[in-house]
Structure formats: C-alpha cells, structure tokens
Amino acid sequence: MATIFSRIVAGEIPSYKVAEDDRFYAFLDINPLAKGHTLVIPKQEVDYLYDLDDETLQGMILFAKQIAQKIKAFSGCKRVATVVLGLEVPHAHIHLIPMNSEKDVDFSREKLILTPEEFAEIASALRE
Ligand code: 5GP
C-alpha cells in the first residue's frame, strides 16, 4: 500500500506544494513548528533516508538546500534546521524548520494551527 506521502505526490491527498522535480517533492508540514516548516521527500518510496542510493540522497540534499534558502529569506530566521527523525510515516523525509534558537526545533512543543489561507500564502511565497 502506498504511503501517505506517495499519495500526496500522486495528488490523491492534497498538500501545500513548495517545490517538485522528477525525483523529489516538498510540501508544508500540516503540523508546523513554525511558518515555513517544510517536508522534503523522494518520490521513490523508501522508508529510511540512509537506504536511498547515494545519487538520490545527494540530489535530495541539494534539492533541500534550494528550499532552505527560500525558507530563510521568507522567514528571516537565523538558520533553517534540517531534521530527520520520527517513525510516524514510513517514507524518508527531511524536515526544514526556520529556527532562531534550538528551542524552535523541539518537536514536543505545541504545533502552530494555521488556516488554509495561511498555508497557501506560505507555500506560494516559498514557490517564488
Ligand atoms: P515524523 O515521522 O517525522 O515524526 O513525522 C512526520 C511528519 O509528517 C509530521 O511532522 C506530520 O505533521 C507530517 N504529516 C503527517 N501526515 C501528513 C499529511 O497528510 N500532510 C502533511 N502535509 N504532513 C503530514
């Protein structure tokens, strides 16, 4: 059965798309720690990031880099945290999270609740 992220890539489940190419897809996390919190995934359905072949992993980091630069410009944060953790979805993903302090990347913190309009506005800004 396809993972929820593969279903997002296929358009079966809606997402706020930030970027896409033939191998990778980036979209806003639906439970963001900050405005601009983005997930980067390979279209190839692989559970664990380090099971990706070297070329795909390399490409994914470079794809994430472009988005991180946009997130930084958009949010004015000091850095964009790059986080790989969690066992929730069995599809490799990198979290890109605007941060000004390490506390901003504490996943036990309460997540932001954004309106569909806010999500759409952020995604649109990051796509530019
Ligand atoms: P992790 O496995 O890294 O702990 O969590 C997976 C992340 O994916 C979570 O931050 C969660 O909010 C996000 N997520 C799970 N399901 C969906 C979904 O259907 N849409 C979006 N946009 N994000 C999701």
What does this structure look like?
The protein has 128 residues and is an alpha+beta fold. 31% of the residues lie in helices and 20% in strands. The protein has three helices and five strands, in the order H-E-E-E-H-E-E-H. It has helices at 4-9, 54-75, 116-127; strands at 17-20, 24-28, 38-42, 79-83, 94-99. Strands 1-2-3-5-4 form a five-stranded antiparallel β-sheet. Helix 2 (54-75) packs across helix 3 (116-127). The radius of gyration is 14 Å and the shape is globular. The termini are far apart. The model has no long low-confidence stretch (mean pLDDT 97). Bound molecules: guanosine-5'-monophosphate (5GP). Guanosine-5'-monophosphate is lined by residues 4, 13, 15, 27-31, 39, 85-89, 93.
- Indicate the proportion of strand residues: 15-25%
Number of E-state strands: 5
SSE succession: HEEEHEEH
**Form type:** globular
Question: What level of helicity do the residues show?
Answer: 25-40%
Distinct helical segment count: 3
- Poorly predicted segments: none
Mean pLDDT: 97
Rg (C-alpha, Å): 14 Å
The neighbouring-strand order within the major sheet is 1-2-3-5-4
The molecules bound to the chains, other than polymers, are: guanosine-5'-monophosphate
Largest sheet: 5 strands, antiparallel
Structural class: alpha+beta
N- to C-terminal distance: 34 Å
Label this structure with key terms.
single chain; 128 residues; alpha+beta; 31% helix; globular; binds guanosine-5'-monophosphate
Short overview:
With about 130 residues, the protein is α+β, with helices and mostly antiparallel strands. It is built from 3 helices and 5 strands.
